């Protein structure tokens, strides 16, 4: 009987999209709220300045670049960068 192939383990990528960086957390939080009201899920990355407003994690650089192009069509400008996802139960 042939061995069964194991399903690939799904891991979060290290690619993310940064939209802005602020010296204060309230400024970053305001942009996150504004983006949310426009249907874009964003988060604040960092616990000290600069507080970066970033989107989700993407498995490949190309997947993130594709999302940047879609956002640009909506008038939202960002760039691809890398970030290690936070461990379970912690925040970036």
Description:
With 92 residues, the chain is α+β, with helices and mostly antiparallel strands. The protein has a single domain (15-82), classed as 2-Layer Sandwich (Alpha-Beta Plaits), CATH 3.30.70.1070. The protein is 28% helix and 25% strand. The protein has a 4-stranded antiparallel beta sheet with strand order 2-3-1-4, covered by helices on one side. The radius of gyration is 16 Å and the shape is globular. The mean pLDDT is 88.
Summarize the structure.
The chain has 92 residues and is of the alpha+beta class. It has one domain (15-82): Sporulation related repeat (Alpha-Beta Plaits), CATH 3.30.70.
What are the salient characteristics of this protein?
92 residues, alpha+beta, Alpha-Beta Plaits, 2 helices
CATH-defined architecture: 2-Layer Sandwich
| Order of helix and strand elements from N to C terminus | EHEEHE
CATH topology: Alpha-Beta Plaits
* Strand arrangement in the largest pleated sheet: 2-3-1-4
Count of structural domains: 1
Structural class: alpha+beta
